[in-house]
Automatic annotation (TrEMBL):
<dbReference type="InterPro" id="IPR000160">
    <property type="entry name" value="GGDEF_dom"/>
</dbReference>
<keyword id="KW-0812">Transmembrane</keyword>
<keyword id="KW-1133">Transmembrane helix</keyword>
<protein>
    <recommendedName>
        <fullName>diguanylate cyclase</fullName>
        <ecNumber>2.7.7.65</ecNumber>
    </recommendedName>
</protein>
<feature type="transmembrane region" description="Helical">
    <location>
        <begin position="6"/>
        <end position="24"/>
    </location>
</feature>
<feature type="transmembrane region" description="Helical">
    <location>
        <begin position="146"/>
        <end position="168"/>
    </location>
</feature>
<dbReference type="InterPro" id="IPR043128">
    <property type="entry name" value="Rev_trsase/Diguanyl_cyclase"/>
</dbReference>
<dbReference type="Pfam" id="PF00990">
    <property type="entry name" value="GGDEF"/>
</dbReference>
<dbReference type="InterPro" id="IPR029787">
    <property type="entry name" value="Nucleotide_cyclase"/>
</dbReference>
<dbReference type="InterPro" id="IPR050469">
    <property type="entry name" value="Diguanylate_Cyclase"/>
</dbReference>
<feature type="transmembrane region" description="Helical">
    <location>
        <begin position="86"/>
        <end position="107"/>
    </location>
</feature>
<keyword id="KW-0472">Membrane</keyword>
<feature type="transmembrane region" description="Helical">
    <location>
        <begin position="31"/>
        <end position="49"/>
    </location>
</feature>
<feature type="transmembrane region" description="Helical">
    <location>
        <begin position="113"/>
        <end position="134"/>
    </location>
</feature>
<feature type="transmembrane region" description="Helical">
    <location>
        <begin position="188"/>
        <end position="208"/>
    </location>
</feature>
<feature type="domain" description="GGDEF">
    <location>
        <begin position="248"/>
        <end position="380"/>
    </location>
</feature>
<feature type="transmembrane region" description="Helical">
    <location>
        <begin position="61"/>
        <end position="79"/>
    </location>
</feature>
Amino acid sequence: MLVALLNPTIALALGAVFLVLWFYQRHRPYLAVLAASYSLSAAGFLFQYFTLPVGMAPTKLLSNTCFTFAACCLCSAIVARYGRSVPYVGIGVLAGGGLTAFCWFLFVQPDLTWRILAMNFGFGGLSLLVAAELRPVRGRGPTEMILFVLSLLSGLNFFVRTLAVIIAHGPFTSYDGFYASSYWTTALLSHALLSLLIALCLFCAAALDVMKALKAEAYTDPLSGLLNRRGFEERARLLLQHCATAKLPVALVVADLDHFKALNDLHGHAAGDRVIADFAAKLLSAAGTRGVAGRIGGEEFAVLLPLSDLGAARLFAEAIRTLYAAGSVDGLPPGTRVTASFGVAARTGDEGLEPLMRRADEALYKAKRNGRDSVRLSYERPESVFVVEPLAAADRSRLDSH
């Protein structure tokens, strides 16, 4: 009796855990589907042992229907978790075919052995279908590879174990002694082991999702949608290291919105927020996926551009400056012109992020001092010239206040 309650107890516990996870992460519906899958699996095992008043045959049909829907939910949730398109047709054909064959050998041509084969082959096909869907993503990380391997093992379990046991100890003619047979014992143990392993792997995947979300929140500026200063510096250092290893050129563009304090005072902070969001959207669109863009201060932005020399970075900055100066910002009075100034520096040798940012910032100060709404370049010079940075920052702040 204890063995009989092993699988439903495990399944109910796993279903409850996934349900709790879903309550705290409603934006991940695959967790709710997993909770339904394990709950249905628990019900299926219970109906195997307890016959309802409607009779044995309807109870067995209900039990295997629960198993079938549980398998469909599990397959769909795993595939959806990894961003793949759920193969509903394939799942429907395999699950529906197995359940239809089960009904045939239950009501039309009763045969317990063929009922076992029909259900196990259907579940085995579903497992291999999941493995096929996970194959393109199995190299992304350990959880993907482990789930891929577990899907293959599950498929082999349903096919090979079932055939081996039936050949060695079958065929089965009735349910008398069925639950003490080698087939049912191996089915219970293998299902318990694989269910636990798959659930643990999915727990790890859910935990990684939370960690990634927390990291993204910690490294992202909520107003602009760009990286904040910490996120930008971390990503930029990694990119600089990669470019140094691959001997690739890289350039830095820093930007500062002109007269931003005056704009805030005149039109209000809500208008200032719209200006920042609008500029960030244009900057991100221009940088694309190759550049690292961040909001590194109140109205200061930076973009690190790989595969770009000083000339290419200057063209990038000029394009942004022209586009922004010629456009309008929603929420500001018609005719209100908002501009930005830019400083550009190309990396020399194995220059680190700090000196590269100092040179770009000094070029930006020149742009602000010489009339704003312009792009200035920083050429390679000795590091000692950067002792004037505090004065430059103070002067720039004083200029912005006018």
